[in-house]
Amino acid sequence: MSSERIVVIGGGPAGLEAAHCVAELGVPVSLVERSPALGGTPISENYAALTPNFESAEVAMGRMIDRVVEEPGVDVRLESEVTDMDGEAGSFRLTVATGGAETVVEAGAVIVATGFQHFDPGRETQMYGYYEYPDVIALQDLEAMLKVHDVVRPSNGKPPERICFVQCVGSRDRRIGNEYCSKVCCGVASKEAIEVRQQLPDCKVFIFYIDMRMYGYWENEIYWPAQEQYHVQYVKGIITEVLQKGDKLLVRGEDTTMGRPMEVPMDMVVLSVGMEPSQGTRTVAKTLGIEQNKYGFIAASAPPLDTVSTSRPGIFACGAALGPADLEDTVSSAAAAAAKAVRLVRRRRVAVAAS
Amino acid sequence: MPVGGRKQAPDAVEHERATVTSTVSGKEWELPGMWNRMFEQRVIWDYTTDGFEKIASLAGGESLEWCYGCAKCVPVCPVDLVGEYGPRKIHRKVQTGLDLFTSDDLWLCTTCANCLRVCPKEVDMIQIMPAVREVAVGEGRIPAELQEVFEKTFRYGNALGENPRRRHGWTRDAGVPVRVLPSEPGPVDVLFYVEDYWSYHPRGQDAARAFARILASLGVDYGILGAEEKTIGDSQRLAGERGLFEALMEDVVATLVHYEFKRIVTPDPHGFNALVKEYPKRGHTYEVLHYTQLLAPLVDRIEWRKELDLTVTFHDPCYLGRHNGEYDAPRRLLEAIPGVRLVEMGRCRENGYCCGGGGGGMWLDGFTANHTSERLSERRVREAVESGADVLAVCCPYEVSRFEDGAKSTGNDGLKVRDIVELIDEAMGGAERA
After folding, report:
1. Number of residue pairs across A and B with CB atoms under 8 Å?
2. Does the beta-carbon distance from B1 to A134 stay under 8 Å?
3. Integer Cα distance of B255 and A198 in angstroms
4. In CATH, which superfamily holds the domain spanning B50-138?
5. Residue-range definition of the domain harbouring residue A196
6. Is the peptide bond before A52 cis (omega within 30 degrees of 0)?
């Protein structure tokens, strides 16, 4: 039996935007989220402020969450997972498991918004020593410190005097298998660098990079202010390895401008980890039977002009489930997915009424 | 550990030494490996960013830190082509602890402005270098040969240390009368500001005489200041002696106030630059022309007597071209000379190569030679020869002597170096006609 309901899987920025759009268009929506809370990675990973505008992640995501939970047309199901699906576009039947209980939800279309996870630096092929040295951390670890205004060296609890970011960790790497650019890390690292300079004005901040990839306005909104107003030192040439020297970390690389090897002592090293498909993205793709690309992200079926349709009619994907995406990309594709899903169920309703 | 990600320390087993026992010999072998390299002694090349703060605190110094390393400046920096100096490298060296205030690099920039022309971030070496040099000069850290020129300028009012009373000595052999305003007062249309090298350098004097004959032939109403003229001193300013420049400006303005003229014409693009850009900042505004700008509109009135049959290439002075945007007036003059075929060098106009004389470079040849594989003027002479020209034409008083030296030292004696006015004068019949 055909259904007008749309199921959105994932309660992060993409899922919240998609659910809100669908509801505002007057179509009933079920939002299925595996964890006990909405908000997605910005909340669960303790992001301090959003890139590029520095708004508090909690405030910004709180606004998105409120919009959805206050919408009467949205049926929010926390701690729930889609475990099975059959049917076809217009008349899907999804099995949703909540705790021990299973219910069947009928839906005309499904929007997958299952997002990404941070690359695990334990898998990198350089020698950055993430699990070996306490003072080597990742972007999201620093986010958590920035959030509570307590940027300190994990090894001794003291504020760092010199801190550096190492870009492209887990991205653009054939040996790791992630050949793609994760797109957001240059901006996020620069944003965090600015926050460090704001919170610890005496701390020197360096960013080692292959090439700074600041898309569009991020160049003038983040990169140039970081350099020109906050005196963040950008250094071309990526770090090869991190070594311990006394109570410092030595970062080793090439001084590409002068063409010679370089070693610099740091108090903290922040690895700018990239994006990988979340476990949820991998699982849901299999459950729903939609194609994934070689990296495990959900494959858009007709790029570049259709970014949200998948290999299975009636199922759309959005946000970082499709690949590396910043928040601007994420909400844009979420709205696109909502529009296409609503169009599909409405067309069917018109067709049914006419027959 | 107050981290909010999922980081958990793994159970690590750390060995003091890693060895493996050979199954053949039973001997223990040390394993070379990452853990092992970690304990090697290494030279730490530390760096600090304090240099940027110190430079940014100077007026005009803030943009050095803006460099994002795109490297566009490298192929256009004239010094980078013959040495290790380069704008991007200066940024990087300061980032890695260089004290620019005490570094030899400070004196290598000729302020030619080609890096600024191509820089997307507007890193402005034309302001940075003089600002830092000013501090170095104040602290007495300055190459001796440059210090000597500053002293001569201070004492005699000219960079060559010549007797101020002989400033108009060149007029004697001009073949035409030259009005020296202090002894022949009265209003004139044009104040001919001769500047140092046309006043004193023998080859500059040749050009000054040629220019006087051209002005006479065209009936231009002009005069010179004679012994009352002092250098404008713009290159001294860019080399770090702003105080000297300001003092000279006071003297120059105090002199000019005694004379009635409509416009100032000078052969020196450096003095021209200061009169156009620096003097107005202190409220001294004059109508100022480079001599090519005076002559170009009059070129149709010139009576030519002779066809020269020369292939000529033209070197754009940095301070006339890039700094002040005048590329056409000199070319208009050259193209008007009967028998002159103008050919361009690969680097010309906006991308013109620097002769090495700007920003104090004129007086740092000995110092610079220790840091470069050849002089910029020598490199430029080679380009002129490659262009197929018989004559390298110039219109900056620094250049005739620089390029004639370069032609000799590179074994290109066949290349003649001529100021544009010398070519015009020759085609007008020269001294014989006058």
Report:
1. 96
2. yes
3. 54
4. Alpha-helical ferredoxin (1.10.1060.10)
5. 120-274
6. yes
